[in-house]
Design a protein that fits this description.
Elements: E1 13-14, H1 30-40, E2 49-55, E3 59-65, H2 83-97, H3 127-131, H4 146-154, H5 160-166, H6 182-196, H7 200-228, H8 240-265, H9 270-297, H10 305-324
Parallel strand pairs: 1-2
Antiparallel strand pairs: 2-3
Length: 330
């Protein structure tokens, strides 16, 4: 697998664009869309990738890159930069919620025994310091070679990170002013993986991306139905996707947590655990979703057209959460 370490200046993804003022008809095909994106990136000094999609009578999607990223082969893996910190933070919050870790646990508690860790007189570095950028760590150490580092990590060399940490000297007090540190989040991800007893990417997939995936299905179904039925995107209907994300995540997280509790009781049998999860949670999920749908649907009685439209779509969309979102997925 070819790992590219080009710094991504920004990543923009539009999964469904129903009206783009600059493109009354939209680009004729994916090649034209890609050419337009590439033209916009000509002045971008950093290696940058932008993905976009236009949905009208038919869909066109394309990705274009600039700088070093423009020469990457198919299947190349890119850094997603600061976005990855969101996943680490969510995973940490999940593990705190489960009681697996505490924010005030010292990092040394989960690090390999005997590893030389950054320290100085005063408080020890904790998980709280790492997630809030107050661990006094540099962004990246001097002489750090990201390409070589990623190759070693991809090859299963778990000592690579701790070799880097062993050479870090803290120049300011731990727990002081926050300064962004990529190294801090690399370390946090490793510690969470060690505590969870699983590879970091698998933990993120199971505990963060799975709930997001079920909610994504709900949002795509709803927005697609709005397009097919010519429901306009206005000030109110634009609020529906974030509302669905909020409702769906609450239910999906509830289902996933219950599944995690049922799995050991089922002797590790995933199918039995899923059945037990649905048996114990379907009614609560159904009632909460149904009452939410009724609440939104009541707006259909409004004398204001925009409110009526919002009420009908939001009410039906809440029902879609029940059918395709958290309460039917484990």
């Amino acid at each position: 697998m070819d790992f590219r370490t080009a710094r991504v200046g920004f990543v923009a993804a539009a999964f469904a664009v129903f009206a783009w003022p600059a493109w009354p008809q939209g680009p004729a095909n994916a090649e034209a869309l890609g050419a337009l994106i590439a033209k916009r990136l000509q002045a971008e000094p950093h290696s940058t990738c932008v993905g976009a999609a236009v949905v009208e009578a038919s869909a066109r999607a394309s990705v274009a890159c600039s700088g070093e990223a423009a020469h990457a082969p198919p299947g190349a893996i890119y850094e997603i930069g600061t976005l990855s910190r969101v996943f680490a933070g969510l995973l940490l919050a999940d593990m705190v919620e489960r009681g697996e870790v505490s924010l005030d646990d010292p990092a040394s508690k989960y690090a390999p025994a005997g590893a030389k860790l950054p320290s100085r007189p005063g408080p020890a570095i904790t998980l709280r310091h790492l997630v809030t950028h107050t661990a006094a760590l540099p962004d990246l150490p001097d002489g750090f070679q990201p390409r070589e580092f990623l190759k070693r990590v991809a090859g299963g060399d778990h000592a690579a990170l701790y070799e880097v940490l062993a050479g870090v000297q803290l120049s300011r007090p731990v727990g002081g002013d926050a300064e962004p540190s990529q190294l801090g989040y690399l370390w946090l991800a490793d510690l969470l993986a060690r505590r969870g007893g699983e590879r970091y990417d698998r933990l993120v997939a199971q505990r963060v991306l799975l709930p997001l995936g079920t909610v994504g299905i709900t949002v795509l179904l709803t927005v697609g139905a709005m397009s097919l039925t010519s429901v306009p995107l206005d000030l109110l209907t634009n609020m529906i996707p974030p509302l669905l994300v909020t409702i769906g995540l609450a239910e999906a997280v509830h289902m996933v947590l219950r599944y995690e509790d049922e799995l050991p009781l089922a002797g590790g049998d995933r199918e039995l655990a899923a059945i037990a999860t649905l048996r114990h949670t379907w009614l609560a999920c159904f009632v909460t979703t149904f009452t939410t749908a009724i609440g939104f649907g009541a707006l259909a009685l409004s004398d204001t057209e925009a409110l009526r439209r919002f009420g009908v779509v939001a009410g039906l969309a809440a029902g879609v959460v029940e059918l395709a979102g958290g309460c039917r997925t484990a």
